[in-house]
Structure formats: C-alpha cells, structure tokens
Amino acid sequence: MRSRIKIHIFASMLSLIVSNAIAETFPTISGNVSSQECSDALTLARSMFNSKSTQLYAPLDIPENLNSNLILGSSALDISGGAALEADQDQFEKVPQFGEESIRSVYWEKNITGGVRIAVKETSFGWRGDMYSLFLIDSKAQKNEFLQDLQESYGHSKYTALIGDVWRPPLIFLSKQTKRKWFMSVGQPYDFLAPWAIYINSSEAFDQSCTIKFRPDVKLSQSLLPNPVQYFAHLLDETMGPGNDEGTLQPTARLRNHVQDVWANAALRPWALSDSDTYNSTEEVNMALAAWSKTGSSYKKVYAEIIKSYPVAEKSLSYFYINNFNLSKNQAEKIAKWVLDIAYRAHYSFPNGSDYFRYDNVNTNPWDVKN
Asked: Measured at the alpha carbon of residue 28, what is the angle toward residues 25 and 32, in degrees to the nearest 5?
C-alpha cells in the first residue's frame, strides 16, 4: 500500500511540475500583422516550425501557397564554403567587391522601389564561411562609389549596415500581390530558435513591420522543460567541462550551442529531432562517461547523479508531452525515451574511429510512427 501511495504522490508531483505548460502556440507574430508581407512571413515561419529541419533558417521549406518569391538568399543549411547566396538576376546584379579577381561579391539591387537601394555584402571568414551585411543606400548613390568605399574604408565606411555581420544571410522576397520587396533577418545560429525581424518597403525606406517569435524569452532552452529534465541537463553540462583555451575551433562552446538547439526542439518541436543530432551511440557515451567518472571523486558523484536522475527525467518528459501535445501515455513514453536519449548523446563527441557522418539521413524518431 505504501509503495502505491508513493507512486501516486510521485505522479502527482510530476503533474504539478509540468502544470506550467507552455501556453502560447508558436510561432507568434507582433507588429503590422495585417500586411501581406507579414502574413507571408508567418506562413513561412509556420512551415519551418512544423518541418523536420533542426534549424528554423534552413534548409528552407517554402510553401507553395506563399504569395512572395525569394529573390536573394540561401536555402541551404551548410553554407560554410562561402559564396552561398542565390540571386534572381532580374532583381540583383552580382558585382565582385574588389575587381574581377575578387572571391566575394556585392549583390546590387537593379530595380529600386522607393528612395533606397538594397545592397548585400558577403565577407569571407575562412573555415567558418561568410558573414553578411545588408545596406539600404540612397537611390542617388552610385555603385562604384559604394564599392570604392568598401575597399578604402578599412572598417570606417560611411555606409551603415541595417543588418550587419550575421552568419546567416538575410532573406529578400518580392511580393506577388503588392510587388513590393521585403526582407528579414533570421537571427544568429548560436541563438536557439531565434526570432525573425521582417522589414517592408514603404515609399521612402524599409521599416521593421513585424517580429516573429518561436519560443518564450528564456536564457537556456532546457528551462522550457520540467524541473527533473532541467536538473538532468545541468548534470550533463557539468561533464562537458569549461572549454577554456580551445582556440578558434571552440569545440565545447560549439557543442553547447548545439545542445541548446536540441533541448529547444525537445520542448517545442520534438518531431524535428533526428539521429543526426548526435555523434556517438548510447553505448559509446555510457562507456566514456563511466571511464570519466573514475578519474576523480567529484566526477564519480556527478556520474552517480546522472544514473539516478535519468529515469526521473524521462518520466517527467513523458508527462510533459502528454500535457503539451495531447499524446497518449504510451505514445508519450516512447517519444520521451527516444528524445532524452538523443539529448543525452548530443552533449558529446567522443572519438570512436567511425565515420563522422554515420547518422546522416538516419531518423528513428517515433513521432512519425505516432502519426
């Protein structure tokens, strides 16, 4: 009888933990929501949010019913090779920045609407790819004048970028109905489920007309999840170490950024997780953490807590999915088990002698079976 009472109390506590379910339905939009352009942006946002893309900025899943055409941007996820922009040649001229031998370009708007011209500059940053800046230039300014300023200004250009030095290029559209251009910033890749800022052309300029958000305003994505999952995430983070003095590659920081994406999707878009979010198998992680735990008494304590808290986190996550996604108990348990395993493994990249891409195109997410 006592054991039954304990189980009942435990289940009740879990229900209370997840009772503060995320009330809002994302994505949400604010600002000039009645405009055709903001309506299109929201349509695209919903398509990306509901897609299986880990990131919301790429690969782009543009709906057939979108009333705008993409005229400058990149639909690919990996653009680290640089020169990733795809341009509508009727709308933009691709101009080498520093002469014909230049490896990077400026995309110069041909057909001006209103009093300003759009120009997008790509700047090479080596192995990380390019950074992108969008300028709104007075329609009277000449192309050669702008290019010369870029070449001679050495960081002190008289032209100020509206969207400056971002790792993901802005997306520029042309509305089929209004015939107006509009563009948006999709945020930085290191900001999980970053908001989109949409700018619409008026008679003389572009104004930020609306903003689309994909999540509540929280610092850490795991805070969107029940307390036992947050505690489990904290323990896993402790095993990763501080990541100090790791040079320009910053492997630990990059892993932490990736983990934030994984926890965010676990909370809001569990269908978007896949095996490709991981590097190691569960067995490899288990073995590596067990070996790590033997290297210090404090490590042994953290490892013991991980083992202890894992099933509690998994149970609370299943309740979370029942409450937030109207799943049956059986469905929620299957998905919670799989999602927590992905999140667990996503924290690490232990050497394994295997092909780095062995999980590419592998997706055993049980969400598909649910549907």
From this structure: 150
Element holding 14 (H helix, E strand): helix 2-17
Q: Say which residue, 320 or 154, is predicted with more confidence.
A: 320
Spell out the residues 6+ positions from residue 244 whose beta carbon is closer than 8 angstroms to its own: none
Q: Quote the CA–CA distance of 316 and 333 in Å, as a whole number.
A: 10
pLDDT, position 102: 76
Distance CA 65, CA 39 (A): 11
DSSP 266-324: HHH-GGG--GGG-SS-HHHHHHHHHHHHTT-HHHHHHHHHHHHHHHHHHHHHHHHHHHH
Say whether the peptide bond before residue 27 is cis (omega within 30 degrees of 0). Answer: yes
Q: Are strands 68-73 and 171-175 parallel, antiparallel or unpaired?
A: antiparallel
Rounded to whole angstroms, the Cα distance separating 105 from 124 reads 10
Does the pLDDT of residue 21 top 80, yes or no? Answer: no
In tens, the pLDDT along 144-156 reads 999 999 888 766 7
Distance CA 103, CA 83 (A): 8
**Location of structure tokens 């990306």:** 48
Alpha carbons 342 and 345: distance in angstroms, whole number: 5
Q: Does the reported pTM lie above 0.85?
A: yes
Helix axes 227-240, 251-268, angle to 10 degrees: 170
